[in-house]
UniProtKB/TrEMBL annotation, chain A:
Gene3D superfamilies: 3.10.620.30. Residues 255-498 form the 7 transmembrane helices usually fused to an inactive transglutaminase domain. The keyword Transport does not apply. InterPro entries: 7TM_transglut, Papain-like_cys_pep_sf, Transglut_i_TM. Residues 24-183 form the Inactive transglutaminase fused to 7 transmembrane helices domain. Keywords: Membrane, Transmembrane, Transmembrane helix. The chain crosses the membrane at residues 6-24, 306-327, 339-366, 373-395, 407-425, 437-457, 463-487. This is Gonadoliberin iii-related protein.
TrEMBL record, chain B:
SUPFAM superfamilies: Glutathione synthetase ATP-binding domain-like. Transmembrane segments: none annotated. Keywords: ATP-binding, Manganese, Nucleotide-binding. The keyword rRNA-binding does not apply. PANTHER family: BETA-CITRYLGLUTAMATE SYNTHASE B-RELATED, RIBOSOMAL PROTEIN S6 MODIFICATION PROTEIN. It holds the Pfam family ATPgrasp_ST. This is Alpha-l-glutamate ligase-like protein. The keyword Phosphoprotein does not apply.
Length: 502, 314
């Protein structure tokens, strides 16, 4: 007896690879596990306006780069301007340029963003220590007093920042603090104090996303580095941590908008919330990340829909293997039921069943005439094929005339398979009588119906196309059932006489 | 309840379809020898080379144009059998027991017109009855004059004896009797009666029809367990020597008793059915395991038959 260990290892391997590939698909590429899932997306428009002075103008505008949002689509419109996007690390910027700009100019940048669910900003490399801020002479002693007081009440960089924020946003502030805030904003004071202590921190700009808002501006925040993570502080509201629906637009520490050769520059944002299919979103995102290099989504739509059908066959085959090996159902033709089930998907179940029975019944009648003609098998089958095409044509025409649109789908039946079915049934009828025809034909139709029910479930269709790993799992199951040496369900009934008396 | 529990069947050693396919057919029947049993013409030639008696061969029809020669070849005979060389499950076998003025009659008395006969042979050649629809040849064989000991036990057809031969040991036997329901055919799934036969004595043990136990033949109402198969030793020898002939480890041998020629080998089967267990009222697995557990033996046919008669009786 040869060892079955390699076999089981193979099956386990297929199972694990298939399952983990599917899970990877779902988690990493955010392909939804269920069909019809929706995700929220945000469409944000930035409008930059400035007055040209008649000279060459260059506008440098930072683009959003926030781990919490993934850019799905972005585009910029700027009549007459040259546009380039610099992809520098941590600082994506759009640069518009024009040789001469007179009067008021408007530039637009549109972006569609999808939340990724990542709310924390981790950083692998530790930022360099900032240069200490040089306080103006008038503020120096006040700042140093506040810093040393706060420092003594803190244990770490983070708690220092927290204490500092409390001191700045307190309703009753110290005189030193009032002095500092009279010449600088709260954000600046906070940032400068952290820098004085050599704590990595930077000013960032964020946009609150609210549905159907127009003419919004960016709000200032400070990111403080603590234990490999950037923590957000809102000095205006005196809050630590990331508020909901905040998009960090600029977080490299640079300015959001630089305009050379223009005056009165400003930027305004408007935004719109939208729901879209989770599947389409994840495919778009994969497309952006070039993750589609070897994938069915690359194919033209027509081939994709073809594959959607082809990839259902493993499910039907699995069903047939299960019904034959585990249950023990007899069918005429091993995989004929799968092909019939595929046709049912096009025709819908009831129309398909009725159509199938009509065609086979008519075919059997005509076949019984052909059998009297004493033909060679090959020409008889060919004749049946032609007759089947005729029957399908007649039924299609009839249902069209009577306005039954369901009848038109009858053309989806595989004609060669139908012809063979008719031939086999006819021989079966002659040899074993009509009863056996009904038993085997009924068995085939039952298997076809079950295969159809399995294949037409929308989540099955979703899984077989979007999670290709599932086919390895099916392969593993089929291999496993190929080793099943137990009793079939129907054998338990068949061998009942052997189980009784001992 | 009408369903047996799996462990009940396992305890009784009942072999099931999946286990038969994987553990016995798959393991003991080498693919390359399949044609020796699947092609009845080849089986016949091998049997003759091994001194195993078979029904006489009247003609082999290989091409459509040879069909017209059948009537002259069967002239002067009382009857004949036409079968596909690669048929399965008894499909495509046409038995003619009576020829009168160029007209053919089936055992049931129904006439088969010459054109129907032509069509039947043509169907055989086209592969309608062969596995996978491959083109086939038709074999015309002489009729078997069956032994009168079975009178009253069979309806129209010839009773045949099925022995399962495992690695050369006859492990289980069954007599198959045709009935009105089976239209004179000896295939159990078509309604023939199966009578389990004691390997030691050739005496009937249990009987089944349509997988259900019965006591009397449904057409002749004779008690089935009274049967004792004559020439039993010689049948066991024939079956057992088929192992050397085709080298298949798990083999079904189908034989008939001819009144004058004695046991004739009809055909071999590489995928013998499981109903023989129901006919014997017991599972075959303990006997198969018994043979499997024996260290590699080099027994002669006679020794194997003697061994089987001691160990596989009852």
């Amino acid at each position: 007896m040869h060892s079955r260990k390699p076999f089981y290892i193979l099956v386990a391997l297929l199972f694990i690879v298939g399952l983990s590939a599917s899970i990877y698909r779902g988690v990493k590429h955010q392909v939804p596990f269920l069909p019809g899932e929706q995700v929220q997306s945000w469409a944000v428009d930035a409008k930059i306006s400035f007055d040209g002075t008649g000279d060459a103008a260059e506008v440098s505008f930072s683009l959003p780069q926030d781990p919490a949002y993934e850019v799905l689509v972005e585009n910029a419109s700027s009549p007459g301007f040259g546009l380039s996007v610099s992809d520098a690390k941590d600082a994506r910027r759009a640069i518009w340029s024009i040789r001469e700009a007179y009067g008021s100019q408007d530039l637009y940048y549109k972006v569609t963003l999808v939340p990724t669910g990542v709310t924390q900003i981790h950083s692998d490399d530790i930022p360099s220590q900032p240069e200490p801020y040089l306080w103006p002479a008038t503020e120096k002693s006040a700042a140093e007093q506040v810093i040393s007081e706060t420092w003594s009440r803190s244990a770490s960089n983070l708690s220092f920042a927290q204490q500092l924020m409390n001191a700045i946003t307190a309703t009753k502030r110290s005189q030193n603090m009032e002095l500092l805030l009279s010449s600088q904003t709260a954000t600046q004071v906070f940032l400068h104090m952290l820098q004085t202590k050599g704590i990595p921190a930077r000013e960032v700009s964020g946009l609150y996303l609210e549905d159907q808002r127009r003419r919004q501006s960016l709000s200032p925040f400070v990111e403080v580095f603590h234990n490999g993570e950037w923590i957000l502080f809102d000095l205006v509201k005196g809050k630590q941590g990331r508020p909901e629906n905040l998009l960090l637009w600029e977080r490299s520490g640079h300015s959001v908008l630089d305009v050379m050769g223009g005056v009165n520059s400003q930027v305004h944002f408007s935004m719109l919330q939208d729901t879209r299919s989770a599947l389409a979103t994840s495919i778009d995102m994969m497309m952006n990340n070039n993750a589609l290099d070897f994938s069915l989504y690359q194919l033209p739509l027509e081939e994709q829909s073809l594959f959607k059908g082809i990839l259902l066959i493993p499910i039907g085959v699995l069903m047939v293997v299960f019904l034959r090996v585990i249950i023990g159902v007899k069918t005429s033709g091993t995989f004929m039921p799968v092909l019939i089930a595929l046709a049912f998907i096009q025709t819908s179940l009831v129309t398909g069943l009725v159509g199938f029975l009509l065609i086979v019944a008519c075919g059997l009648m005509i076949r019984s005439y052909l059998s009297q003609l004493n033909l060679l098998l090959i020409s008889r089958i060919s004749a049946v094929i032609i007759v089947v095409i005729g029957i399908i044509g007649v039924f299609t025409l009839l249902s069209y005339k009577f306005g039954l649109s369901e009848g038109l789908t009858i053309t989806f039946f595989p004609m060669i398979i139908l012809a063979w079915t008719i031939e086999r049934m006819s021989i079966l009828w002659e040899e074993e009588g009509p009863k056996e025809v009904i038993v085997q034909g009924g068995g085939s139709l039952m298997v076809a119906t079950l295969a159809y029910l399995a294949m037409s479930a929308s989540w099955v269709q979703h899984w077989v196309f979007n999670f290709l790993g599932i086919h390895l799992v099916i392969l593993a199951l089929v291999l496993l059932m190929g080793q099943y040496t137990g009793y079939r369900l129907l054998e338990l009934k068949r061998f009942k006489p052997l189980a009784g008396d001992a | 309840m009408n369903i047996a529990w799996p462990w009940e069947l396992r305890a009784r050693g009942v072999l099931n379809m999946n286990k038969r396919n994987i553990d016995y057919i798959g393991r003991y029947n080498p693919r390359k020898f399949y044609k020796r049993v699947d092609d009845k013409l080849l089986t016949k030639q091998l049997a003759l080379a091994n001194d195993i008696a078979v029904p006489d061969l009247i003609a082999v029809v290989r091409e459509q144009h040879e069909i017209v020669h059948i009537p002259e070849r069967v002239k002067g005979r009382t009857g004949f059998v036409i079968k596909p060389a690669k048929g399965s499950g008894g499909k495509g076998i046409l038995v003619i027991t009576h020829i009168e003025q160029g007209r053919y009659y089936k055992p049931s008395g129904h006439e088969v017109s010459p054109s129907e006969l032509d069509r039947h042979v043509s169907n055989i050649l086209s592969g309608l009855f062969s596995l996978g629809g491959k083109p086939d040849v038709a074999i015309v064989e002489g009729l078997i004059e069956f032994n009168p000991v079975f009178d009253g036990y069979s309806h129209e057809g010839v009773p045949d004896i099925r022995l399962i031969v495992f690695k050369g040991f006859p492990v289980m036997g069954m007599l198959r009797l045709s009935t009105a329901a089976s239209d004179g055919k000896a295939n159990l799934h078509q309604g023939a009666v199966g009578v389990g036969v004691d390997i030691a004595t050739g005496k009937g043990l249990h009987a089944v029809q349509f997988d259900a136990p019965i006591e009397f033949h449904p057409d002749t109402v004779k008690k089935l367990t009274d049967i004792v198969v004559p020439h039993w030793d010689s049948l066991l020898h024939t079956a057992s020597s088929a192992f050397e002939m085709c080298e298949m480890g798990y083999l079904g041998t189908d034989m008939v008793l001819d009144q004058t020629k004695g046991p004739l080998l009809l055909e071999l089967n590489a995928r013998p059915g499981l109903a023989i267990q129901i006919a014997n009222g017991k599972g075959i697995l303990p006997r198969l395991k018994h043979v499997e557990a024996m260290s590699s033996h080099s027994m002669t046919v006679a020794e194997r038959v003697a061994y089987a008669k001691i160990h596989f009786n009852g």
